Amino acid sequence: MTSFPHAPSSTSQVRVAVPAWAWALALLALFALYLIAQDNGAVLSQFGDTAHEFFHDARHSLGMPCH
Amino acid sequence: MAETLYRPAIAQPPRFGQLFGRLVLAGAVAGALAGVFSLLVTERAIAPALALEEARAAADGAGHEPAEELFSRGEQLLGGFVGTLLAGVVVAVVFAAVYALIRHRLPGRTDFPRVVLLAAVGFGIFALLPALKIPANPPAVGDPATVGTRTAIYGAVLLCGLISAMLVSALVSYLRSREVGQAASAIAAVAATAVLLVVVFVLIPDNPDTIGSDVPATLVWNFRLASLGQLVVLWAALGLVGGWLIDRLTGSSVAKR
To answer: Is residue B165 part of a domain?
Structure first.
C-alpha cells in the first residue's frame, strides 16, 4: 500500500541495488578513519604515532576522545 | 490518473554508482567546509589549550628539554583541515551505502527530503548524542590513563544511538503497517526515542576525567560549542549538497505538472 494516493513518483519507491563493493569500501573507509583518528600506535606503531600527531586537531575538534 | 500516461512505462531507480559519486562529492564539500570552520573557529579554542599544555610542561620539568614535537603547529593546522576533509569523505562513503539501502523506505517523494532526513538522523546519532553524553574536550584536558575507557564510552554511545534509531524506525514501520495514523505514529516514535535515550544516558558511565583547575571553564565551553558547530556544518552540508545533487539526477524522472 502506498501512502501517496496522488501519483507516486516513478522511481522513488523502487529499491536501489547496493553492490558488495560499496559495503567493502564503507568498511575500508571506516578502518582508515579509525587509523587516522584513534590508532595511537596500537595497530601501526610508527605510522600510527605520526598520524596521531598530524591529525591531532581534527580528532579533538570532531569530538573523538584523545589523550 | 491521466498523469500515469506521461510517465515512462518502465521506471528505473538510479544506479548505485550515480548516488555514490554525488554523495562522495557532497562529502568532500562538507568536509572542506567543516575544515574551514575548524581553522576559523575551533582553532581559536585549541590554541589557548595548547599554550596551557606548554605552560604545564614548563612548570613541571624546568630542567628538562621540551619534548620533541613531530610536527610544527602549521603542519598540525594542515592536518586538522585534511583530517576533517577525509572524515567528510569517509562519512559520505558509508552514507551512500546506507542511503541506497533504505532510500525506498524513507518518507518523501523526491530524493532531497530523504537525503536531508538521513543526514539529520546521522547528525543526531554521531554528533549530537556523543556531544551530550561525552562532550568533546580540548587538548590539556584528557587524562592519558583513561583514553581506553573514554574511547569505549564513545563507541558505546554511537552504537546505542544507531540501535535506537533502528528500533524506532522498526516501530514506525510496524505502526504504519497496522494503519495507525501519522500523528499517533509520530508521538509513539518521539516517546520511544526519549525512553531509549534516557536508558543510554543512565546506563553508560560518564567521562571519568576531571577537568584541571587551571583550565578555564570558558575555554572548555567555547571548544565544545565550536566542535558541535563544526559537526553541524559537516552534516548539514552533506545533506543539503548531497540531496541537491541527487535531486538533479532523479528530479527529471519525477512527474512534473
So the answer is: yes
Q: Which of B16, B111, B249 to mutate to test the interface with A (most CBs of A within 10 A)?
A: B16
Find the closest chain B residue to A31 by CA distance.
Answer: B90
Instruction: Please tell me the pTM assigned to this model.
Output: 0.89
Helices B217-250 and B16-37 meet at what angle, rounded to 10?
150
pLDDT in tens, B68-110: 678 888 888 999 999 999 999 999 999 999 999 999 999 888 9
Burial of A18 from C-beta contacts in 10 A (0-12 / 13-18 / 19+): buried
Question: Taking CB atoms and an 8 Å cutoff, what residues of chain B touch A29?
Answer: 89-90, 93-94
ipTM comes to 0.82
Give residue-wise pLDDT tens across range B207-227: 999 998 899 999 999 999 999
Residue B66 lies in a domain: no
B86 contacts A16? CB cut-off 8 A: no
B157 shares its domain with B125: no
Question: A57–B79: do the CB atoms touch at under 8 Å?
Answer: yes
Domain count, chain B: 2
Pull the grid cell for residue B70. 613531530
B30 is a domain residue: yes
Domain ranges of chain A: 20-61
Segment (H or E) for B76: helix B73-102
Q: Could A57 and B43 be called an inter-chain contact, meaning their C-beta atoms sit closer than 8 Å? A: yes
